Amino acid sequence: MAEKGQGKPFVGKDQDVERIREILFGAQIREYNQRFATLQRDLDRLQKDLERARQQLAEKDEALAKQVEAVRSEARQGDEELRAELREASDKLWDAKVDRTSLGDFFLELGTMLKSGSTSGGVANLLQGLIETEE
């Protein structure tokens, strides 16, 4: 035969244990739960702040990339313009230079004049002759 009330004493004992646990540790558990909830709120807030910071960083990165590309484009354009100017100046110098034969003749005549000592009006005439052959 089964004893009466065998299941009930365990239920009563469980409730008694819970009451004792609440009396002994209740305030401490509530404090831990409150701390945990505060930490969870702080963690959620920090995660949102971090996500906002990531988005701002991505936007700034994109803006900076556009600026860098604009500077590169400007530098390329400036480089091309400078090269064109240098080519143009080189072409002008090439066209404007005195040919070697005329320059050689000039120096020979100048040397002859210096040797003979007659440089008074001859050098001016010699330079004029060089300019005329250049044109």
Low-confidence stretches are 1-5
**Separation of termini?**
140 Å
Name the helicity range: over 70%
CA gyration radius, whole angstroms: 50 Å
Largest sheet: none
What is the molecular shape?
A: rod-shaped
What structural category do the secondary elements indicate? mainly alpha
Q: How many H/I helices?
A: 3
What's the pLDDT, averaged over the residues? 82
In percent terms, what proportion of residues is strand?
under 5%
- Secondary-structure element order, N to C: HHH
Number of DSSP strand runs = 0
What is this structure, in a nutshell?
This protein has a domain at 98-135. The termini are far apart.
SSE diagram, text form:
Layout: H1 7-96, H2 100-116, H3 122-134
Structure description:
By secondary structure, the protein is mostly helical. The protein has a domain at 98-135. The chain is 89% helix and 0% strand. Helix 2 (100-116) packs antiparallel against helix 3. The longest helix has 90 residues, at 7-96. The model is unreliable at 1-5 (pLDDT under 50).
List keywords for this structure.
3 helices; disordered N terminus; 0% strand; 135 residues; mainly alpha; 89% helix
